[in-house]
Amino acid sequence: MLLMTGMDFGAAWSATLARAPEHELREWLAFALDACDAADELAMAHFRRAVATTRKPDRTFVTAADQAIEREIRGRIQHRYPEHGLVGEEYGEAAAHAATRWFIDPIDATHNYIRGIPVFATLLAVEHEGELQIGVISAPAMRERWFAWRGGGAWNRGADGERRIAVSGIQSLEDSQLVYGSGPDARSSGLMPGFDALLDSVWRTRGFGDFWCYALIAEGAAEVTLEVGAHPWDLAAPLVLVEEAGGRVSDIDGARRIDAPSFVASNGLVHEATLRRARQAKDG
Fold first, then answer.
1. Comparing C-alpha atoms, which of 183, 131, 117, 179 is closest to residue 15?
2. Residues 43, 214: Cα–Cα separation, whole Å
3. Distance between CA atoms of 255 and 259, rounded to whole angstroms?
4. What is the spatial distance between Cα 218 and Cα 221, in angstroms, rounded to a whole number?
5. How far from 121 is each of 3, 78, 100, 104, 243, CA to CA, in Å?
6. Which residues of 222-260 are buried (b: 16+ CB within 10 A; e: fewer)?
7. Is 1 inside any structural domain?
8. Same structural domain, 152 and 188
């Protein structure tokens, strides 16, 4: 799915991507937040307990909680918005050509969930007329939730209440904190031949991985993250969150899309430098 290309970023630019009236965006957001409340209950009911786990054909793990959460959310959407399409990790696509589609990742960071690590979340996003409009990331074991809608800003809701968030103003890689998923995957992919040099060039690195990387970018706690091997349902909600917080997202070649084999998110100010450094060996 190619969403757009270009160099633009920032909260004001993100607001221009709204494809539905404000009242409709807020209705979808309220529905998504309610759906995530139900997802949180299901996830926590199984967390750190014996939960049935199997491997999918691609050898990744899936739990009974993943499946139950996606069934719950799909059922709610189909009841409330029967004309909307669905793109889910566990149960695939429905009404793929609908003007409005929901992207569902029932448990992002399933391996963390299986091992009892509290860094996991349900990701839910809404696309309308080819552009992502709503993004929600709900991490119940962390007691945190991030959400955004076009023109409405990016927000965090946690133990201290609700607050608007924004990316940092750091302008150089040398002063940046970089967070990432799997180093071995990035190296073996061949997509980021300058990965190690990039890590060596920044102020600080941490391998947090998954949704939390994008939340940290949106919070202004880190400046750049990059990963390979993600899927549209992994990236749809983070894209809206980062862009509404004022940041930029793209693949390693600078194209703004969520179906690419690579994904880079940043505060926008260090984005071009990150792309150049990460692909430096490939470009000679």
1. 131
2. 21
3. 10
4. 8
5. 24, 22, 23, 11, 19
6. bbbbbbbebebbbbbbbbbbbbbbbbbbbbbebebbbeb
7. no
8. no
Interior angle at CA 105, CA 100 and CA 107, nearest 5: 155
Query: In this structure, what are the phi and psi dihedrals at residue 75, rounded to the nearest 5 degrees?
Result: -60, -40
169's tokens: 């103003």
Structural domain range at position 260:
167-283
pTM of the model: 0.94
Can you tell me the distance from the alpha carbon of 213 to that of 209, in angstroms, rounded to the nearest whole number? Answer: 6
Q: Is the pLDDT of residue 284 over 70?
A: no
What's the rounded mean pLDDT across residues 150-177?
A: 97
Claim to verify: residue 130 and residue 211 sit in the same structural domain: no
Q: How far apart are CA 130 and CA 244, in angstroms?
A: 17
> Domain ends where: 165, 183, 201?
165
Give the number of other CB atoms < 10 A from CB of residue 19. 16
For 9-66, the pLDDT digits (tens) are: 999 999 999 999 999 999 999 999 999 999 999 999 999 987 777 765 665 777 889 9
Whole-number mean pLDDT of the chain? 93
In-domain check, residue 31: yes
Ordered DSSP codes for 22-46: HHHHHHHHHHHHHHHHHHHHHHHHH
* Single-letter amino acid code for the residue at 85: G
Residue at which a domain ends, from 150, 165, 180: 165
Q: Cα dist. 235→160, 197, 232, 282 in Å? A: 27, 25, 5, 25
pLDDT at 280: 87
